Amino acid sequence: MKNITMRDAIRDALAEEMRRDDRVFLIGEDIGIYGGTLQITRGLFDEFGKERIIDTPISENAITGAAVGAAMTGLRPVLELMFGDFLYLASDQLANNAAKMCYAYDGRISVPMVVRAPFGGGTRSGMHHSQNLEALVASVPGLKVVMPASAYDAKGMMISAIRDKNPVVFLEHKLLLGSRSLIPDEEYTVPLGKAKIVREGRDLTVIAWGNMVPKSLDAAEASSKIGIDVEVIDLRSLSPIDRPTIVNSVIKTGRVVIAHEACLTGGFGGEIAAILAKEAFGYLDAPIERVAAPDTPVPFSPTLEDEYIPTSKSILDRIKYLMNV
Amino acid sequence: MKKFSETLTKEDLLEMYRLMCLSRRNEEAMVEIHKRTPLPELPHVGIGQEAIMIGTSYLLKEGDMTMPSHRDRGVFYVMGMSSKEMMAGAYGKDIPSTRGKISPHHIGITEQGLVTGSGVIGSQIPVMTGVALAMKYKKTDNVAIVYFGDGAINRGDFHESINLAAVLDLPIVFICENNLYAISMEVGESSRVKDLAIRAEGYGIEGIIADGMDVLAMYDVTQHAIEKARSGRGPTLIECKTYRFRAHSERDPRDLRPKEEIEAWVQKCPIQGLKKKILEEKIASAEDLSLIETAVNQEVEDAISYSEQAEFPAPELVYTNVYAE
Question: What's the predicted TM-score (pTM) here?
């Protein structure tokens, strides 16, 4: 076992898969000797060279499309979008090509590619480098979308994503890259499409993903001090979504808070609320609550950004409200 | 430039003639049928542009890939697609390559060297750049050929892709079919340069202006570009000066092009041009060509009968192969 950060865990997964499979290569901006703006690919250039760590011009359309073309013809590209915000730039290639090729060929080909994108706020990076755009891609049939919240899951899910036959958008919250897990020395994988109950509880369920997972755990800990037993689910995968885990939890607890860092309107929490409102309807003891960012761009100044991003207190407040305390 | 076409045999020239006639007859038939009863596939025909379709894709080798535009039926024929498959596809019938999921002007059959294009004009160019990247990555001497028009050349996709292909020395040939109009916009209104090929210079690669109404000229320039690509000397942009004899589509509300202009270009018909050469140089007799034309007409007639009787896809196919298993 070793205690490593999510940044190192992702890098280890990339390196191990590249050693295992010659078809795996990395493509992106400043990912070569420089090691990526967040240093996730640091050192890989030394081992794999420029043929397998392909540094590109700033051309998100072209590099995303190029990953699609390479994946369709036998390779396994892992593309780094420098920031999740650039999903908007890559969205034609992702939604119109990557996601549709398998269907257009009626399953005669697949597009085994991974799009890695660091995302999320809290780094004073402003409105163009802080967004949470998971709902944009999670609504596209043909794409898979995952967001691990621990170093352990990040490594295991990255390996699964690289081996998956479908295009996988792999979102890495920037504030979690330094978080640590104990990781086994031997190879392991974490399946895509499975949520994880990270804390068991009886009274209320919090469903969260990305950086809202540790905040939800903090809120659950604070709740326990006032006698509320909160269950926390790390959704981990938005597409496909693990319906049984979230539905069964809410059937058990009868109360739910959905917490995400994306804006409220059009956020993926709305989709989960709709699933629960239908499939757990008879078991709900209270309205479904959502914690989300306000419907504004992500502001820059510390006082503004701190107001903007949901905190563990935002989650705790909703928990107390639903529990009438 | 080397006259590659001088090595073509009599059989080659007759085969090129046959393929051009086949593309023309197939499209004429689609137009006629569509006038009586609208086809599910709205015909966007390339009548008049056959020299490009046939001359650029003729004599490719195993593993080479083409990505025809929506107006390049002739390329599909060269790559071995049958009239029945294409015509039944246009009827929306259940054909093996698409099962009705994508319109047949975007059929992809990778084993036959056909990569599916996009209904988003220009969006296919990055994908084909990735196909070329995979060819280089796998250390083959294969080449990728991507087709687009004078409208698509203004998309960012084109500019990002040709630059990426240039800096990575990718084995790709960019074929710009400059038929002088996008839908209604004349090329002089969409570009300040008279010859689109000069844009290549801005990316540090060779650009060639070619007579898109002369199949042998098209063969010569493409073989030149292919030879370069195969030997690792990177991409080429070929601008083919051409004209579509019909409107943008068979549902074009109006065709703004001057009648005299259309008539002048029809005089340059590429099929008549090749026919004249074959007869003048006594490569074959008028009877030989007439036999070819009869066989072509029969093939298209057979394809129509087949298509009218073929089955539509079963509705439940909607749900299959969104994801690869």
Answer: 0.97
The residue whose two tokens read 């006629």 is B32
Minimal C-alpha gap between A128 and chain B (Å): 20
**Which alpha helices (H) appear in B37-155, and where do they start and end?**
50-57, 73-78, 83-90, 124-137
Mutation test of the interface with chain B: which of A48, A86, A103, choosing the one with the most B Cβ atoms within 10 A? A103
Q: How many helices (H) and strands (E) does chain A have?
A: 12, 14
ipTM field: 0.96
- Residue A80: which of A96, A97, A56, A103 has the closest Cα? A56
Tokens 């076992």 belong to residue: A1
- Asked whether the beta carbons of residue B157 and residue A62 sit closer than 8 angstroms, the reply is yes
Active site residues of A: 129
Distance separating alpha carbons of residues A43 and A31, to the nearest angstrom: 10
Contacts of A51 in chain B (CB under 8 A): 137
Structure tokens at B115: 């990569």
For A69, which of B134, B163, B324 is closest by C-beta distance? B134
Picking from A99, A183, A187, the residue whose alpha carbon sits closest to that of residue A148 is A183
- Nearest to B110, CA basis, from B152, B69, B62: B62
What value does the mean pLDDT take over residues A264-272?
98
Neighbours of B92 (CB within 10 A): 18
Q: Which of B99, B110, B123 sits opposite A73 (nearest CB)?
A: B110
* Per-residue pLDDT reduced to its tens digit, A183-218: 999 999 999 999 999 999 999 999 999 999 999 999
